[in-house]
Structure formats: structure tokens, C-alpha cells
Amino acid sequence: MDRRTFIAGGLSLPWLAQAGAACAESGPLTKIIFPFAAGGSGDTLCRLVAQHAASMLDRTMIVENRTGGDGLIGIKAVKNASPDGSMILVTTGPTMYLLPMVETTPSFDTAKDFVPVSLLARFELAVVTSMAVDAKDFGQFVAWLRSHPDMTTFGVPSNGTIPHFAGSKLEKDLGIPLTRVPYRGSALMINDLVGGHLPFGITTLADALPQHRAKGVKIIAVSSAERSPFIPEVPTLKENGIDLVADAWYGMWLPAGSPPDFAAKLSAAAVATLAKPEVKEKLTAIGLIPVGSTAEGLTQELAANTAFWQPIVKATGYKIDN
Description:
By secondary structure, this protein is α/β, with parallel strands linked by helices. Helices cover 40% and strands 20% of the residues. The protein has helices spanning 14-17, 41-57, 72-79, 93-102, 110-113, 138-147, 162-174, 186-194, 205-213, 260-274, 277-285, 295-316; strands at 29-34, 60-65, 87-92, 114-123, 125-130, 153-156, 179-182, 200-204, 217-222, 248-255, 289-290. The strands form two sheets. Strands 2-1-3-10-4-11 form a six-stranded mixed sheet, sandwiched between helices. It has a five-stranded mixed sheet with strand order 7-6-8-5-9.
């Protein structure tokens, strides 16, 4: 099966692409490798970390976008890099736990090939319906699905993503047969929702929120553990009786063998950066929730996500030939 695009971020705004990779005036060069394109929310996160952490670490820090292979090009670059602080990986959590699950021959082992540094920020997912669906909330939507068995098609931004597998979990929990339609990104899927060509879809909250506010679509549930600060009036899936918490996040790693003292300093710099009010403001404006954690916090998050999604992914039988 052809490779598909994994979740890489949220919005792409003109000023984000111009953010640049701010550098410290002295010290050795460190590249933050981001394995997705410039201009999105994850890229902006990287550039803010580079800008603020550089002076804390007395290093010149730049962001390099190494795209391709659903994130594998950048991930492999850091995996094979010298463990001397010259390369740092920032990528989505799903790339680090889903890719090893769905590849026929895994290209990397997150626990063995990388040193955890920090969980940086979260971004949320949403269940979104067309305005043509006669349902004001999730409960009414489920009733609508049961009474319209010929209209249970749903869209996802791509195969092999968290929305893909969240749909599989939703199908199982509801006991309603659903038909998944993969798109080449959220924008095309949301266009079909706005046009009434698709009953519902699962995508990032950041991508769906503008059309929800414009009354082009309806967000009826979010899949985060708590209600989203961006749309607090909408209940979570868990509040609706669905045992599914499926937000996504960005994390930071170093190549295996990196010195523990540098990893600890980098983690502290990331946490300090994400605690700054000006950084928080910029990130929340583009749909990211700043976190900043210890290495242990990132390890625990990765383990929890792996344990949760592994049986769901296995049950689908979905694989990528590599």
C-alpha cells in the first residue's frame, strides 16, 4: 500500500513561514530537525523553541525541515546522527508510535534509537458534521446515524493517522458500520463537509474551528481528555460515553547515546521556553496547547499512547509496505 501523510500540524499562516530560525550569537551549531514542511503550527513551535532555548544553552540553533516518507526522512537523519547535540528531533507523537506499528519492517525503535527530552505541546481532534446532518449534539448524531444506515460515510485527512484509527474505535464502540474515506489533507475533507457531500469527519480541531465558527460545519465532540479551551462548550467523546481520548502532540528527542547532562539541560530549556507568556500566546493562537515536560513525562505519554493504540491498529490490519 502507498504511504500516506501522517498528522503533521495545524494551520499554515503567512506570518508563520516568515518566523525564521532565530539563533544564539555563539556556541556550537544545533539543528532542530522537523520532518514536515515549513509554515505550519509544528514548524512554528520548533522555531520558537530554537529562538528561546538557544541563549539558555549557549548554542546556535536553527530549524531544518527534512520532509518525506511520512516523517521518516527526518526521523532517520536524527537516528543516524552523532550523539553530540548537533541534531535534535521534534515531531508528532503519532509518527513515533504509529509508524513502528504499521510498517511491515519497522525503520526504527523509539525506545532504543532515541533519548526522550520533552513533550512540547498538544493539539486536539474533533468529530465534525455537515450542517445537513440533523443533529445538535453527539447523542442526536448517533441517533441520526442509526436511522440513516446508508449515510455512515466519514472522512479523515489521510489513512494511517490518528483520525483513521479513532474512526475505527468509534465504529467498534457504537456498533454501527462506518465507511472511511481518506482525503489528501483536512482542507479537502472540510470542503466536502461544507458542501454537504460528506456526512461527517474526524480531523484536527484547529482545521475545523474556522468553519465551525462560520457555521459551515458543526463540531459535535472533541477527543481530548478534557474540554478544549478553544471550544469549551463542546463536550468530549468521553463525556458522551465513548472510551476514546485521542489528542495528539509534539515531542522532542535526541539520538541514542546522547550525554545525559545535555539531554537534561535541553529538557529544562524546552520547559522554560514553553512557560513564557509570549510563547504561550503565539502557540495558543494557532491551536496548540503548550506543555513542556520532563523526559519521564514524554516516555510515559509515549508508552500510554502505544498501549492504547496498538490493539486498535492491530485489529484494523492496516499496514504500510516498506
